[in-house]
Amino acid sequence: MNTIQVNNLHFSYTPGSSVLNGIDLELDQQTTAIVGQNGAGKSTFVKLLKGLLYPTKGEILFKGKNTRDYTAASLAKDIGLVFQNPNDQIFKNNVISEVMFGPLNIGQDDQEARHNAISALKKVQLDDKLDTNPYDLSLSERKMISIASILAMNTNIVIFDEPTMGQDFAGKEKLKEIIWDLRDQGKLIICILHDMDFAAEVFERTIVFNQGNVLADGPSREVFKQKNILQQAHLEQPSITQIANELGLDGNYLTDEELIQALKEKMTS
């Protein structure tokens, strides 16, 4: 079971300056968006999940075992993290070597690693760039290369840090398909986002962080209707929700399709 239990989690980079303040969460099979302004503690939180940092107080349990008791290598086999900035992740001089690095590092043989790398590159539609230097690609393409690098590792848990950064509509649609495909494979998907529209449309569960605390946690539809809570976290409701409110529609709408259907029903009633 790909479940992470977070108990009374505290973290500080320096004494007397708390970043996370007693977080209690269970992360299960629901696709989960973590939203909040810069400085809310989101990126620190996922680094703790990945084992890149250790709690100042409290614990994180994966498969019932404290993450402090795992080696970095053993966690890497189960938890993949796509960095916010692909330039912090990419360091090889061609695409295929970059995407194969993670799989090889967790014990896949050369043949398996290459097969998984090419399969992952097909998913991000960059399998024609195998011999290209990643830094000859655009920012959005480098972001996709960093995503492919984690997909090729076939981890049970995939964490995305701001995956929509630098992506146009087509890129976001591609990301949506990748996330839903991972969900259908039974993987736990966690995503840090500033994009409320993408969070509302794609993720089943949304957690709102603010100043190291959880302000709201629940089904995305329920969280995004709590305008006051979102404002407290300096966030806005999704665009579709705002438009529906301006049009005086009853209900809570998160997608274009829902809004269009509501308008059709209003016109015919």
UniProtKB/TrEMBL annotation:
Domain of life where this protein originates: Bacteria
ABC transporter domain: residues covered: 4-236
PROSITE patterns according to UniProt: ABC_TRANSPORTER_2 (PS50893)
GO molecular function, one term: ATP binding
This protein's UniProt keywords: ATP-binding, Cell membrane, Membrane, Nucleotide-binding, Translocase, Transport
CDD domains reported for this sequence: ABC_cobalt_CbiO_domain1 (cd03225)
Record's GO cellular component terms: ATP-binding cassette (ABC) transporter complex
Membrane topology: Peripheral membrane protein
Cell compartments where the protein resides: Cell membrane
Keyword Lipoprotein: no
Keyword match Membrane: yes
PANTHER family reported in the protein's UniProt record: ABC-TYPE COBALT TRANSPORT SYSTEM, ATPASE COMPONENT (PTHR43553:SF25), HEAVY METAL TRANSPORTER (PTHR43553)
Family from the record: Belongs to the ABC transporter superfamily.
Protein name per its UniProtKB record: ATP-binding cassette domain-containing protein
Lineage of the organism: Bacteria, Bacillati, Bacillota, Bacilli, Bacillales
